[in-house]
């Protein structure tokens, strides 16, 4: 028995143990940069992928054009996929950017297509180009929304991890 009556003595403590204050860094800047990058890069990736896929399909699958292997169209699709994967990977910095881009460039156009298909295709034909944009919107926008919102939700939402403070040896 100890003097205090407890069966075990208290752990030894040094005379003074400084307690580290854990301060979280401001996350506003990284959230703003993530949202800005995602909102700018996502339409670039969508347009590259859509143009490469629809031109390949139009020239090779539908019309059977001879003499071209479609490597340029595959390169465009690959470049668009790389840009979209960079946006999804930016969820490591902040999950807010891919989520906002997934809603703005994926879910909203998909809902527009589902609610009013005539208006959607009229807008696609009014774009300043001779290319027929977005021939398969349910596939393209649905997958973009799932990719970006899913990666944003799985991304990082906290500040930098810090080691635990050791109170005594």
Q: Which helices and strands appear, and what pairs or packs with what?
A:
Elements: H1 28-62, H2 71-89, H3 96-115, H4 117-126, H5 137-154
Helix pairs in contact: 1-2, 1-3, 2-5, 3-4, 3-5
Tell me what the structure shows.
The chain has 169 residues and is mainly α. The protein has one domain. Helices cover 60% and strands 0% of the residues. It contains five helices and no strands. Helix 3 packs antiparallel against helix 5 (137-154). The longest helix has 35 residues, at 28-62.
Short key terms for the protein model shown above:
single chain; 169 residues; mainly alpha; 5 helices; 60% helix
Brief sketch in words of this structure:
With 169 residues, the chain is an all-alpha fold. It contains five helices and no strands.
Q: Which structural category fits the helices and strands?
A: mainly alpha
Radius of gyration, whole Å? 27 Å
Uncertain runs with pLDDT below 50, 5 residues or more?
A: none
What is the H/E order? Answer: HHHHH
Mean pLDDT, all residues: 81
| Biggest sheet layout | none
Number of domains: 1
Number of strands: 0
Give the distance, in angstroms, between the N- and C-terminal Cα atoms: 24 Å
């Amino acid at each position: 028995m100890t003097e205090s009556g407890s069966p075990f003595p208290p752990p030894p403590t040094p005379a003074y143990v400084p307690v580290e204050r854990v301060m979280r860094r401001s996350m506003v800047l990284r959230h703003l940069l993530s949202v800005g990058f995602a909102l700018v890069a996502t339409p670039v990736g969508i347009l590259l992928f859509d143009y490469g896929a629809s031109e390949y399909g139009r020239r090779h699958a539908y019309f059977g054009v001879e003499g071209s292997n479609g490597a340029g169209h595959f390169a465009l699709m690959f470049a668009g996929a790389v840009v979209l994967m960079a946006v999804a990977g930016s969820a490591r910095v902040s999950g807010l950017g891919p989520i906002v881009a997934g809603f703005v460039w994926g879910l909203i156009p998909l809902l527009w297509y589902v609610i009013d298909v005539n208006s959607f295709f009229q807008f696609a034909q009014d774009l300043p180009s001779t290319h027929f944009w977005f021939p398969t919107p349910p596939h393209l926008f649905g997958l973009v929304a799932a990719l970006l919102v899913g990666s944003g939700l799985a991304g990082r939402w906290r500040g930098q991890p810090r080691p635990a403070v050791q109170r005594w040896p």
